[in-house]
Structure formats: C-alpha cells, structure tokens
Write a structure and sequence with these properties.
- By secondary structure, the chain is α/β, with parallel strands linked by helices.
- It has two domains: 3-137, Rossmann fold; 168-329, Rossmann fold (3-Layer(aba) Sandwich), CATH 3.40.50.
- It is 32% helix and 15% strand.
- The chain has helices at residues 17-21, 24-33, 70-80, 92-97, 112-121, 132-137, 184-196, 210-219, 232-239, 251-258, 310-313, 317-329, and strands at residues 8-12, 38-44, 59-63, 84-87, 105-107, 168-172, 200-203, 224-225, 244-248, 263-266, 283-286.
- It has a six-stranded parallel β-sheet with strand order 8-7-6-9-10-11, with helices on both faces. The protein has a five-stranded parallel β-sheet with strand order 3-2-1-4-5, covered by helices on one side.
- The longest helix is centred in the middle third of the chain and has 13 residues, at 184-196.
- The radius of gyration is 20 Å and the shape is globular.
C-alpha cells in the first residue's frame, strides 16, 4: 500500500517515554510529505503528554493496562476505519489489540535474533544498523525521513522555575535498570567540579527517581532538585534553561534531545548499536570501548552479572567533564 492512496493512519506505540518520542520523526515526515493524511496515535494513558500537543497528530487513542477497557479501545480503533496501521510496539499486547486489522497492519522489525547474538555471543550483526527512528520508518519502505530530530511540543502556559541569568547543568541520574545508571557518587563528584566552574546543578527525575535525586541534590551545595511526579512538561521547560544535560541511557535523554538541549549520554551495559542514541542532536555518548562483557542486556539489568560493573565505574567524572566541555565549546 502506498501513501498516495491512504487517508487515515493509526500509529501504535504504547510505551515507553523515549520510544514514543523516537516515533516523532516518522509522524512529522509522513505529515509533511502527505499533508492530507490524518494521523492518529495510540499511546499508554500515562504518556499522553508526549504527543498531546503534536500538531501533526489529529486524534489520540489512550491505551490502558486495565483489561476491562481493552474491548472498548479495540472497538474504537475498528470504528475509525483506518486505511493503514503502523504497529511500532510489535508485542503481544499490540498484536491482540490489532488482531482484526491484520491485513492493514505493518509492524516494526525488532531484530530480536541480532540482539540476542550481540548480548549472548557478542557477535555483532548490528554494527551498521541505523538509529531507531530510521528503523521505525522502514515500516514504509519508500519513505525517507527528513533531517530533523525528535519533537516534543510544550504548552505555552508552562513557565520555568529557573533564573535565566544563571548557568545551569542538568543531571538526570536515574534509569529503570541499575546497570544503566552511572554511580550517584560520580554525579556528586562531577557536580563539585562544575560548581568550581560557576555552574549550578539542576537534578531532574520522575516519580520513581525521588530517592536518587534527593541523595544527589543534598550532596551538591547550591543544587536545585526538580524531581517531580512525572510532570513531563515541567521537566522539559526547565531543561531548556540548562546549558547541557548529563544523563544515562534513559527516557529523559530523549526528552532533552527533543527540546534541543545538548546532551552528554553515559552508556553502561547497553550499546549504541541498539539504536537508542541521541537522535540528530548536539550530543556526545560516553562509554567504555572494547569491554568484552558489553552489552550484557539490550534493556539493562538489576545488577552487574560480572560483579565488577566496569562499564560504569571506568567512566570517571573527569572524563565526563572533559566531554561536556568539548560539547559546550564545539
């Protein structure tokens, strides 16, 4: 099916924060090249803010984990009579939801075999794979993405809490998995270095990040703790006041790139071949090269299987500071 014959598209990506933001180049490109196509988006209810103000999207279908509402969501999709559905989630939940629409559905290729080979046998079949937004676009083989980055559209009534006259560096110290988190004491040491250079540290995080954010903020004199209850817009508008963001391989990394703030991203147990690097953004990725145990997972682990955690412990605060300084002057 070619897009010239399509009037309505549904894009399905329930989770997670970063993955949803990584779909936005595809949304924008389809709409810019085919402005008459209606694009709707199905996303988990708690992530509505990622696409709520996107001008390229007409309707949002809220997905929920509540099984009692599953049938009504599927009926809503059926009633909309989409010409084409792009399943960028491609898991058992999306398959079940879209089961009646098999002939109209195109699915994102997840390359599970290649990921397994890289994680378990360290055979790298992914060395020349493009970033995830480009992989998403492969569901429409003739479509070529534009040269822009991610999108996150913010409402105009949200105001920052930070003084624009100060020099801020943002820290996003959390991640869902332990092996994707740079040690908190390294963040503290980096904060001390940056304080000597007249930067003020702002700590960002969400509902599940309060403990680590409180710990780091309390250890860096003069820092500001803006960890909140998953208030995406508030986090993003304050991030925009920062000269740069230091973060792990996490959803907030993609938030920072979507709002065009320079990023230094620290990769531990995961590797760039998986495609989740800062997309078309001013950024640097810091990682330990040629470490034989990397990657130990494609999503992260709750502990280091080798018990040495070299993938993170060998990335020193001095190294990250040098990368940050290089990024700011480039």
């Amino acid at each position: 099916m070619i897009l010239e014959t399509v009037k309505k598209i549904l894009i399905v990506r329930f989770t997670s924060l970063g993955d949803v933001l990584l779909t936005t180049p595809l949304v924008r490109t389809i709409k810019s090249q085919h402005p008459d196509i209606q694009i709707d988006f199905c996303v988990l209810d708690e992530l509505i803010q990622t696409v709520k103000h996107n001008p390229y999207i007409t309707n949002i279908i809220q997905y929920t984990r509540d099984e009692k509402l599953f049938s009504s969501i599927r009926e809503k999709i059926m009633d909309a009579q989409y010409d084409l559905v792009l399943d960028l989630q491609n898991n058992h939940r999306s398959h079940k939801l879209l089961e009646p629409l098999k002939s109209k559905t195109r699915r994102f290729e997840k390359h599970d075999f290649e990921k397994w080979m890289l994680v378990n046998l360290k055979i790298n079949l992914m060395y020349n794979f493009p970033p995830i937004p480009v992989r998403y676009s492969k569901v429409l083989p003739k479509l070529k993405l534009d040269d822009q980055g991610l999108d996150l559209f913010l409402p105009e009534n949200i105001k920052p809490d930070l003084d624009p006259k100060e020099k801020y560096i943002g820290f996003c110290p959390a991640s869902k998995h332990y092996t994707k988190m740079w040690p908190y004491d390294y963040f503290e040491e980096l904060g001390e270095i940056l304080s000597l250079h007249k930067y003020r540290i702002v700590v960002f995080g969400g509902r599940n990040d309060k403990g680590i954010c409180d710990l780091i903020a309390s250890s860096i004199p003069g820092s500001i703790n803006l960890c909140n209850d998953n208030e995406l817009y508030k986090t993003a508008i304050n991030m925009k006041q920062c000269h740069a963001i230091i973060c792990n391989d996490s959803g907030l990394m993609h938030v920072a790139t979507a709002i065009k703030v320079p990023v230094v991203a620290i990769f531990g147990s995961t590797v760039t071949e998986f495609g989740f690097t800062p997309y078309k953004a001013k950024s640097d990725v810091v990682q330990v090269e040629n470490l034989k145990c990397r990657p130990c997972s494609h999503i992260g682990r709750n502990k280091c299987p080798q018990k040495h955690f070299h993938c993170m412990l060998r990335i020193t605060p001095a190294t990250v500071y040098l990368q940050l300084n290089h990024l700011l002057v480039s």
